[in-house]
Write a structure and sequence with these properties.
131 residues, 1 helix, 8% strand, two-stranded antiparallel ribbon
């Protein structure tokens, strides 16, 4: 059974054909529906492209986040090494300062010993000459 129906009014009309129900629309309404379907398909394609870009951005974000974490860890290791080096330098400076004090003390003792030895030698020589 073939039956053709057209709706000449501005809104869709339901047509019953035997046990089937059909919605009849005008040619202009069909153009609008087709235009909406085409726009919807274009939107889906754009959405797919955007979703691929979002996925790419998420992957790039993960890569950059991991790289940032690795850099932070390397910076922390280097900061710890710098702190250790600064402690060693401070200890070395303290050691040098102590050694300088010891050198001054030894020079003073050497000077006192030299003067004492010269005085003792001079006294001994004087006594030898007098006797």
């Amino acid at each position: 059974m073939h039956s053709f129906s057209f709706s000449q009014i501005g809104y869709p009309r339901i047509v019953v054909l035997g046990t089937d129900t059909v919605v009849a629309i005008t040619k202009d309404q069909m153009k609008k529906v087709n235009g909406v379907q085409i726009s919807l398909q274009e939107c889906r394609e754009i959405n797919d492209s955007v979703m691929q870009l979002v996925d790419s951005c998420e992957q790039a974000f993960i890569v950059f986040r991991d790289a940032e974490q690795q850099l932070k860890e390397r910076i922390e290791i280097k900061n710890e090494a710098i702190l250790d080096r600064n402690k060693i330098i401070a200890e070395a400076k303290d050691l040098v300062k102590g050694q300088k004090k010891e050198i001054r003390r030894l020079r003073t003792h050497r000077t006192i010993l030299g003067v004492s030895t010269a005085a003792l030698f001079g006294t001994a020589l004087y006594l030898l000459i007098l006797l």
